[in-house]
Structure formats: structure tokens, C-alpha cells
Write a structure and sequence with these properties.
This protein has 127 residues and is of the alpha+beta class. It has three helices and five strands. The relative contact order is 0.22.
Length: 127
């Protein structure tokens, strides 16, 4: 599922135009520029029937849209929201926006820290 979500975001023209191929799980590579998207699996639960796995799982994914200024971070987050919200194809049964928040570590006086808009998505998928 992680590979599918990453590939979807990287193949979205609006995201590629802003972040290039800087869409990664876990950590933003040191020394790479912003803007970028950082993905993290917050939770991942396998579904069960009475006596066996159901074949479906549900994950909560955090999509952090980082940029050197707030406007670019917000624009990138809107592109990610458009690409993911309501998406369903192949193994992905459905992607549902679960919340958003804006953040800038250290306030606006810290130039080396990116502005961030975080989006949470619930994803139901076939194992």
C-alpha cells in the first residue's frame, strides 16, 4: 500500500511540478531541497473475520507537505488532497481525508525549518 500511495503522489502532475520526485516515507533525505512530501504510517490494522483475516486492512497515513514558505506548503497540500481524497483503484479500496493542520517549528523567525501542512488519510486496502 505504501508503494502505491507514494507512486500516486509522484505521478500527480501538480505535485511533480512543485516537489519533483521528493516524495518519501519516513524521512526527508538530508541535503535535499524543499518543497517535498514526507509520508508516515501512523497506524495499520488488519481486518479479521471470526476465525481468519478478512483480506482488508485500514491504515492512517500522515502526509506532510513541507516548503520554505507557507504559500508553497499550502499549495502542495491542496495538490496532495486532490490526488488522494476519494481515490480508489486496484488494491486501494478507498482513501478518505481525516483531518489537516498547519505547523512551523520555531515560528516564522526560523528560516532553516520548513513550513508544514499535515494531512491525515484513512486508507482501506486489500492485503
Amino acid at each position: 500500500m505504501e508503494e502505491l500511495i507514494r507512486a500516486l503522489l509522484k505521478s500527480t502532475p501538480e505535485i511533480a511540478a512543485i516537489a519533483g520526485d521528493r516524495v518519501n516515507f519516513g524521512a526527508h533525505p538530508q541535503g535535499q531541497p524543499y518543497p517535498a512530501i514526507l509520508l508516515n504510517v501512523v497506524s495499520n490494522i488488519e481486518g479479521y473475520l471470526i476465525n481468519a483475516p478478512s483480506g482488508l486492512s485500514q491504515a492512517r497515513i500522515q502526509v506532510d507537505c513541507d516548503a520554505n514558505d507557507y504559500a508553497s506548503s499550502k499549495f502542495l497540500s491542496r495538490a496532495a488532497l486532490t490526488a488522494l481524497s476519494g481515490y480508489s483503484a486496484g488494491r486501494i479500496q478507498g482513501v478518505f481525508h481525516a483531518g489537516s493542520r498547519d505547523y512551523h517549528e520555531g515560528g516564522s523567525n526560523v528560516p532553516d525549518r520548513p513550513f508544514r501542512v499535515s494531512l491525515d488519510f484513512m486508507i482501506t486496502y486489500n492485503n
